[in-house]
Each structure stands twice: as structure tokens, then as C-alpha cells.
Design goal:
Strand content: under 5%
Distance between the termini: 67 Å
Oligomer: single chain
Order of helices and strands: H
Structural class: mainly alpha
Number of helices: 1
Length: about 45
């Protein structure tokens, strides 16, 4: 394995890591939004 091939592999892994962390944070953010909407609905119907 040459240095250039290792470098390209490293950049690919960095891209994958960035994509996975971004998608995880997006999913968590969406879950937070859904939870707040559900809480608002519960409170509006409960009162």
C-alpha cells in the first residue's frame, strides 16, 4: 500500500464518520422536535 492509497482511504473513512455523526445528530434533533410537539399536544388537550 502506497501513501497516496492510505491517504485516500483515510479521507473516505473521515467522510463516512462525518456522515454518520451528522445523520445521528439529525435523528436526535428530529426526535427532540417530535417529543416537544407531543408534549405541547398533551398539555393543550389535557388542560
Amino acid at each position: 500500500l502506497g501513501k497516496s492509497k492510505l491517504r485516500s482511504l483515510g479521507s473516505i473513512f473521515m467522510l463516512i464518520r462525518l456522515l454518520t455523526t451528522a445523520s445521528i445528530s439529525e435523528v436526535l434533533g428530529g426526535a427532540k422536535i417530535v417529543c416537544t410537539i407531543n408534549l405541547c399536544l398533551l398539555f393543550s388537550f389535557g388542560s
